[in-house]
Amino acid sequence: MQIITTPNGESLVILPLADYERLVDQADIARANRIRQALASGEEEVVPAAIVRRLIAGENKVKVWRSHRGLSGRDLAAAAGVSAPFISEIESGRKDGSVSVMKKIAEALKVDLDDLV
């Protein structure tokens, strides 16, 4: 390893390529372990490609997530504390939910509010 100081005073380190690649591999392994832990704890989840495709295609996000969670409109309405017809109107695009309602729906669907708006 060699340390070089640039004309601007910045310190740079030169190291053998094998050492650099080992550091990158260690960082990748640590990142993968953090992701595995987050998945195992339920903090993160893997979203199936079919769900992602539906979201990208512009389908109603509430409807896609509700379907993914295996909930009926009535189940989601009960969990969010709103009426089933209101969920239907949100999913069809006839009405927009207020921020507070959308937060309740997001909580019921176990997603971030950003995932619905």
UniProtKB/TrEMBL annotation:
<comment type="similarity">
    <text>Belongs to the phD/YefM antitoxin family.</text>
</comment>
<dbReference type="InterPro" id="IPR001387">
    <property type="entry name" value="Cro/C1-type_HTH"/>
</dbReference>
<protein>
    <submittedName>
        <fullName>Helix-turn-helix domain-containing protein</fullName>
    </submittedName>
</protein>
<dbReference type="Pfam" id="PF01381">
    <property type="entry name" value="HTH_3"/>
</dbReference>
<dbReference type="InterPro" id="IPR036165">
    <property type="entry name" value="YefM-like_sf"/>
</dbReference>
<dbReference type="InterPro" id="IPR010982">
    <property type="entry name" value="Lambda_DNA-bd_dom_sf"/>
</dbReference>
<dbReference type="InterPro" id="IPR050807">
    <property type="entry name" value="TransReg_Diox_bact_type"/>
</dbReference>
<feature type="domain" description="HTH cro/C1-type">
    <location>
        <begin position="62"/>
        <end position="116"/>
    </location>
</feature>
<keyword id="KW-0238">DNA-binding</keyword>
